[in-house]
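Thread: assembly with ligand

MN 10:42: here's the input set. Chains plus the small molecule as SMILES. Want everything predicted jointly, not piecewise.
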Amino acid sequence: MSVLVVTGTGTEIGKTVSTAAVAAAALARGRSVAVLKPAQTGVAEGEPGDAAEVARLAGAVTLLELARYPEPLAPATAARRAGRPPVRPHEVAEAAEKLAAEHDLVLVEGAGGLLVRFDETGATLADAARLLGAPVLVVAHAGLGTLNATTLTTEALRVRGLECPGVVIGSWPAAADLASRCNVADLPDSSGVPLLGAIPQGAPALPPADFRTQAPGWLAPRLDGSWDAVRLAA
Ligand SMILES: Nc1ncnc2c1ncn2[C@@H]1O[C@H](COP(=O)(O)OP(=O)(O)OP(=O)(O)O)[C@@H](O)[C@H]1O
Ligand SMILES: [Mg+2]
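BT 11:07: finished. Tokens for the full assembly:
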């Protein structure tokens, strides 16, 4: 798995923080990591974007952003309103392949959820993943509502012939409620893919050194970690 595309069930779900955890776990194994954010929206020039946040938390990763649009909108809309060219799936695929030639792992973070449009033709992150033949990791909420949103996303991946290695819970509450605890078993059942990790609530506020040390404990062996879902449900 040299290129891993990271999507979520929506925006602000924890894709960036989960990407940082996956990067940290890979780095801890001695793997080189690059992070590609094809379209960064809602961030002004010169301000740190998602890729910079991954580097802050995870450490020494190569960062690449293909385009930045200041308005916090879907990339296609933000590009159109900015009067700038959109990011095309083939550009994402080419950039990721180039990074993959020089790194052990390339993480590609989408914008919002899977079917958010990148250009006026309706191209999405799924098209880039298909060009790359890359698996797509889904980041999801822990609690009520996540079964539907996660299952819609994994179904959309399956319909498109894309591989989904599993789901990571973007923020696992310190005191998990009933729905969250039930979802540990129900999410894999409903979505048809395994749970591959849970990032504890508060993780991005940890000192980065602690984030890096702890990250492998939040992720399953498939993502270079040592986590086991059984512990969550306990
Ligand atoms: N485990 C967590 N505990 C506490 N806060 C979190 C956690 N994960 C993410 N957050 C916070 O929630 C917000 C959204 O997280 P993040 O930026 O990772 O989401 P995203 O899905 O990448 O969003 P976007 O769609 O904007 O790229 C951020 O302020 C982040 O610091
Ligand atoms: Mg993000």
